[in-house]
């Protein structure tokens, strides 16, 4: 057989071997002007060296983080976490205990994963589902928790997420939000907390509410969240545009990200009551006679929620299996709201008092005025989240007028100010009292 006269050969600049070129893949890198070239075997070797280096680097980072976990665990025992939350959140003791234990166990799971062979045992994540009415403190509790632990946390509205192919945000946006909350640090991102708010809004429709039209925000979104919540590599674009081959992507492993989902789950108390009534139904002399007016209250029902109630509500069983910890919060009473106004470290009343003290003004709220604020919040059915708005409405004119003079004064907010928007009482503050207040501060 005659040798092909058109056969092309070239030397690799790395290994100096003479390579017979059959296709561009035999010599993937070649510069005809300088003659610089790298053969495919050298490229494979370079890739393997880089991959091994990355693995060593990753192990070193994991080792460093595993060492820091001992310090984190020692400082953040469940009772310590709860005591910290007590300073900012009124009541909700049951929810505080559940979250404290869930976070502590999550860090212990991470330590186990970094110090043991994954073949030994796989400890599942303590992902949490939170149920509670609007304004009961779900988001506030998590924000203070993230602050204590010094880890990034991102809140994403689950109702804005859509199934792939629909207009809206892909499920990966939750991880991207955490990436930016962690200042684009992938290591911190992979050890943060993702809170999916309004999770009840993506419950699948069933029964009488079933839709025959496309459903971009329900079961498909829940299916899309499965792998992410369980733990896996999520890929997203940095700029937030839809993924396509040309767009550079960022990869984040969600194995050690704690997922907490929450929502009001309006109507779930009826599902719980119906199940309890069915369970308690009996026939005969021992049957319990119930009055039609004896309707159990929300707070007595919500703590009895079971996974089957959530499935009945519209959360798919696969998601429930990945959210083993159920955290329930109670409705806030008028007395609870009164405490929220004045007792926590960052209480709204304390904030306004601090702001006005900078203008030599002592701000006082009569007790009836505080009750009027709490009563208004109850009427609005928005819980603690409306307290600040009610106070802001009342304080607007005062905060506008007060800076016009530096004279020490005393401002008293009465019940009439809250209910009828009358002007508060403004009195001169004695110099001796001012000096005394300054000394105390």
Automatic annotation (TrEMBL):
GO molecular function: ATP binding; ATP hydrolysis activity; ATP-dependent protein folding chaperone; peptidase activity; unfolded protein binding
SUPFAM superfamilies per UniProt: P-loop containing nucleoside triphosphate hydrolases (SSF52540)
Domain Clp ATPase C-terminal residues, every copy: 332-426
AAA+ ATPase domain mapped to chain residues: 124-284
Alphabetized InterPro entries for the sequence: AAA+_ATPase, ATP-dep_Clp_protease_ClpX, ATPase_AAA_core, Clp_ATPase_C, Clp_protease_ATP-bd_su_ClpX, P-loop_NTPase
GO biological process: cell division; proteolysis involved in protein catabolic process
Keywords: ATP-binding, Chaperone, Hydrolase, Nucleotide-binding, Protease, Zinc
Pfam families: AAA_2, ClpB_D2-small
A Gene Ontology term for the protein's cellular component: HslUV protease complex
Highest taxon in the source lineage: Bacteria
Matches recorded under Gene3D superfamilies: 1.10.8.60, P-loop containing nucleotide triphosphate hydrolases (3.40.50.300)
Protein name: ATP-dependent Clp protease ATP-binding subunit ClpX
Lineage: Bacteria, Bacillati, Bacillota, Negativicutes, Selenomonadales
Protein encoded by which gene: clpX_2
